[in-house]
Amino acid sequence: MLTFTYTAGLGLQGQPPENNNWLRNAGGSPLHHRALRGSNEYIPITSSEASPGGLGACPQLVTLTAHAGSRSRPDIYSLHGTIFILIQQAEEVTGMKVVVEGCCHGQLNSIYDEISRRYGSVDLVLICGDFQAMRNEQDLNCMACPPKYRAMGDFRQYHTGERKAPYLTIVIGGNHESSCYMQELFYGGWLAPNIYYLGAAGVVQFRGLRVGGLSGIYNPHSFDKPHYERVPYDRNAERSVFHVRRTEVQRLALIRERMDVMMSHDWPAGIDQYGNLNWLLKAKPFFKADIEKGMLGSPPAMELLKTIKPAYWFSAHLHVRYPALYTHDAKAKINEDEIELDLDDGNPDEITLDENPDQIDLDLEAEVDETPPTPTGYPRTSFLALDKCLPRRKFLELINIDVDQPDQPLSYDPEWLAILRATHKTNTDLFNQIDIELKWINSNISDLKIPDNFKQLTKPLNELAEETNIPPSQLRTYQPQMQNNNQTDAFCNLIEIKTD
Ligand SMILES: [Zn+2]
């Protein structure tokens, strides 16, 4: 794939910009380019689109459709109209085709078929929760949802080996899951061959791309509880099992190395303010009350977005496609010479959410002696929420991401392993402890490749019936047995921690 140096300009009525309408500082690095792309209706700039006259020899105009934004934040390239990109220079870089999917709801076959139809072969698929890894009918009894909506879906074909995921797929959990199975793989693991679950929280690497995720959804009543739930779940446990806990948020907040991609099922609270909010309120008017209270989404996820500063943040849950662009350095002065992108009619519905009264204090200070080192993040985070897999819904999006280790298999992330080890010990200075643990990881684990150690531990119901002499009609009313998963045992042995 090609990466570009460019300048961008604002064109009116579909015409290329006038001379004085070019944006200053709009072009530059591939990173900058990525951030801009993430904020827009995504139209990939391919070499064939851009090079009819030969790149470099003759600059080409390429258009991106911009999203509408607000008067108060012109720095996020938010405007009505068309941004024209003037390509100045292009170079070949190693790119990875990453497809993001919103909610899965058991529709794996349709999702993979649609990816193949639209994009051909891709390198990585990210699924943002409500995955529904139902191994057999018993798993349905662990999903918090009215019985009439409980459906097996496609996953069991992948679990038994009848089908194999055609692309490496990384998933997080949402609020409609085979929760018992996900608890078995608390630190992450293969749900089926080629389908990797990140765990309650987790970070992995693939081809040099760091991908992290937070499973579940936020609920203030469960945030400070331990993971007490065990099958058979009662009515309360069936729900609280997928609620995000402070422990996982704190672990993710300890990340200092640059993070490329983060995923959460529910949206980071307040991210709605950094996209086309008017459009969102029109499309989903019943969000209005929550948006006004700053309650749409997860406050701890927003804290993490601000702390980790990833290049991308992907979510699902609200069943609507919504791009936004969050700029981290709020103090960065807007260049006064910059052209006012004040073309919208103002945004009377805009709500300022900079100070969220419900902001979650991650309580890191209590455990850290010195000021924590500033994480090295990206200047902007491109947020994208996608819909669920239904006809005519926007549930898929392709993103090209430049990577620097094209041969790296799916691997454990050393910093994340060090964080897990450090947070399993009592220590007053966690950041110092993470440095110590990182040295331990580097000298004790030579191969970080995630092993292909998936085993089908749970049988289909008919086999279970033969084995137990209990009729399937009765068996299907039970919740599954909790079992030790070989992958969790191997992981805990590898980094020498006890299961949480
Ligand atoms: Zn959903």
UniProtKB/TrEMBL annotation:
One Pfam match: DBR1
Q: Give the protein name, as stated in the record.
A: Lariat debranching enzyme C-terminal domain-containing protein
Where in or outside the cell it occurs: the entry states: Nucleus
Its predominant location is nucleus
Traced from the root, the source organism's taxonomic lineage reads: Eukaryota, Fungi, Dikarya, Ascomycota, Saccharomycotina
Which GO BP terms, alphabetically?
A: mRNA splicing, via spliceosome
Q: Does the keyword Coiled coil apply?
A: no
In terms of SMART domains, this protein maps to: DBR1
- Native source organism of the sequence: Trichomonascus ciferrii
